[in-house]
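Thread: Newbie trying to understand structure tokens

Hi all, I'm a second-year student working on a class project, and my supervisor (Dr. K.) asked me to get a predicted structure for one chain before our next meeting. I've only ever worked with sequences, so writing a 3D structure as a token string is new to me. If someone could post the tokens and maybe explain what I'm looking at, I'd be very grateful. Here's the chain:
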Amino acid sequence: MRRLALLVAALVMGDCLAAEGHTALPYQYSPTPSEIAPRGWKPLPFLRGGSTAAAVATQTMKKQQTQTRRRRRGKGKGPNPLRLAGIIGQGLGKVGGKMQQDVANIGKHIGREWGKLASHAQQFVAHIPKLLPPRRKKLKHSKLDEVCHTFSSVLRGGEVDTAQLLKACKAHLKLMKTGGSALRIVAKDLESNVQKAERVYKKKPREARHLSSLLECEKSSGIHNGNVLHEKSAAMGLLWIRRSLAFQLDLYASLIHGRVHPKEAAHSAYTRHLSPFHGWALRKIFPASLANMPAREVFMAKFGGIDVHELNDEYDRMIAKKLKALVATWDPLLGTWAEEYERQGLEDTRRV
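---
Reply by user tm_fold:
Sure, no problem. This is what the structure looks like when written as tokens:
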């Protein structure tokens, strides 16, 4: 009975403490009902702290103790290596992705800036010729140079060298053919007359060494009738060669100064040197061909051996200088030529 009284008193005291708000310490030991119950007595389930409540309290206490021990053990150790490796891998992945994005952006910027730099460089290179002082340009050797060279040695010591004259006329024939359709009739007529003189020269090159001896040799053969020359004679061919060169001398002289259009200059030269000896048919045909005379720039470019778009002021001056030299060479040559015909009475003034 005494033990039963003590048990009841303990239970009543626990209820009082619970009613006053007192709670047990988190790790305070709580006796099980079997320990509280008197020896030989079974725990009473209807009392507070019976077998079910005691079991739950015991499990809760053990869990708390286990967690506490785990926390204490964790404080003295480093992080989990696997977890740490995973964190480092994630960080490196983020850094690598950022670096790739930055490299791509840098590449785009470099490409854009390089394109701008290349464009500026091209513009600068294109303006270099304008910034540099103009250098003197040289024309390549042209047909005009050959004509000037060959005619320069035709007149020697007051005598006209026949072989050199024929050679110079052939070179001039090539130059005339570059002038286009405007000089086609003139070139064809010149070619025919050169062939007449060349045939006679090849038969007697020694006697026909000079123009004067060629005319005298042919005249002494009785082929002419006074100043009426034989149609196929060398004298007839050389007469028309001289008239053709006189026509071209006036035309080229106009090209030097460029004051009038070549068409007007050609008509003026034709009226002076060829028209007085042309019949009705030629006076109709010849001027019509001169209507196709190109502009001065075309003539100058052709004589210089360049394209029209390449002709500039410097080239123009150089070509005009060559034409001036040719005209200066022709003038005394044609004068000596005409005097020789007059001296031998071979100036045929008939119309053809």
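A couple of things are worth pointing out once you decode it. DSSP finds 13 helices and two strands in the chain. Residues 81-131 form the longest helix (51 residues). Feel free to ask follow-ups in this thread.
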